[in-house]
Amino acid sequence: MGHVTEPVDRRRRYGGAGAPVYAAGGGTAATKRGISRSERGRILRVGVVTAGLLASVATTSAASAQSGPAATTSAASAQSGAAASASTPASAGLSVTSSSTPYLPKPTGSHPVGTTSLYLKDTSRPDPWVPSVKVRELMVSLWYPATSPGRKRAPYMTAKESELLLKSGKITSVPADTLSKTRTNAFTDAKPAGRKHGLPLVVLSPGHTKPRTELTALAEDLASRGYVVAAIDHTYENVATTFPDGRVTTCVTCEIEKNPAWWEKLAKSRAADVSFVLDQLTGSHSKWKGARLVDTSRIAMAGHSAGGASTIAAMLADSRIRAGIDIDGTTEVRIPDSGLARPFLFLGKPATYTPGEGDAAATWERDWKQLNGWKRWLLVTGAEHTSFTDLGVLVDQIGIDTGADIPGVRAMDITRRYVAAFFDLHLRKKSQPLLDKPSTRYPEVKHCSPETRTCR
To answer: Which of 49, 289, 309, 348 shows a CA-CA span of 20 to 30 A to 339?
Structure first.
């Protein structure tokens, strides 16, 4: 067969590529990076169920942003967002009934939101993780402003993806299809709205082990504000990716031992994925019927965790990406001495990215010196690694404590607001005072100066 898949209509396991179908993100964590003194000794016991952001977490410290996922070790990585198993069942503390349907917060923009998925094949290169697969296959979700709401709300994920994610986290106390029932705000294949070459494009990249769905709430919000958003599933780097023919690929990279060189390879591989997707969306033979709406001079990227770290790699490799955001991701790909002059935003949590504290923050400080254009370093008080994604919202609804000191809805509001402000400033040239100084509306957000190692 050549690679790890499971058809959606079968239950038996398939071998290949050295990784089991239900791989939960095993392997050895590389290094304990980015752990602040305030985090040491803190014990979290978390059973995590959410759309596309699933792992059972039991940590003796809030984990490093750089170490890889570990299903059997005690330290969880903030870079991968993955977590460890524990003697306590992962389902402990879960309380989900058939009547409690998780849902994403409504978008804040004025446009209805449409969505569709694309299956893309890059025939110019083999898969970087399963070399026997001679082409790089990708699934991409698009969100965009629609002319009107459609009749069918888009599913958050498939029942099979939900099943595999629940199995990977050893969650047994909820129905296998729980995650697939999460209520979204976008409508499947709604008619795109906008004038020709009038919409900016934002690419989103999720954390390692996580599917593209983890950034749905952010994507829906940007689309409601008039952006085309493309979120990429980086195949074999997450627990489950479903293809149109029914195959479900699993996480081959979860079984690989991680070190800085490996994370650099991951970032560069993702950069290649991003460039290919841009080619497919902006070329003359795009598979998306709304491709003519994209303004190719206004393209940007954001990502969470490993996806955020990959943003720098993608910007270095592709000049079409005019601005970028790293959300809570430790970086490995170094900016050359010539620097990077395009706008860039670091957005993270104080426990890991306070200037002067820890190896993870040191990577941002290193990059900061090489960023020659507009730049900001913002930290959200009370946030945990997952606070910037759908997980922060959904676990609050389910009643699971992730250790965050900020409500998930508030963290999502902040993430959406500051990400949109950044793109509105740099892709639409709209003034954004919010980005210039601390805000009384968002007192949780601290503006940091790495030169003085202060945040206010």
So the answer is: 348
Using CA atoms, how far apart are residues 173 and 93, in angstroms rounded to an integer? 10
Residue pair 34/358 in contact (Cβ under 8 Å)? The answer is: yes
Query: Which of 346, 396, 382 lies closest to 366 in space, CA to CA?
Result: 346
Dihedral angle at the C-alpha atoms of 169, 171, 176, 177, nearest 10 degrees? Answer: -70
Q: How far apart are CA 398 and CA 93, in angstroms?
A: 10
Kindly report, residue by residue over 254-310, the tens digit of the pLDDT: 999 999 999 999 999 999 999 999 999 999 889 899 999 999 999 999 999 999 999
Query: pTM, whole model, 2 decimals?
Result: 0.82
- Whose tokens are 């910007």? That residue is 315
* Backbone φ and ψ of 234, nearest 5°: -85, 100
Nearest to 103 by CA among 383, 405, 409: 409
CA distances from 129 to 29, 119, 136, 290 (A): 18, 19, 10, 32
The predicted-structure confidence for 325-378, as pLDDT tens digits, reads as follows 999 999 999 999 999 999 999 999 999 999 999 999 999 999 999 999 999 999
DSSP string, 306-330: HHHHHHHHHHHH-TTEEEEEEES--
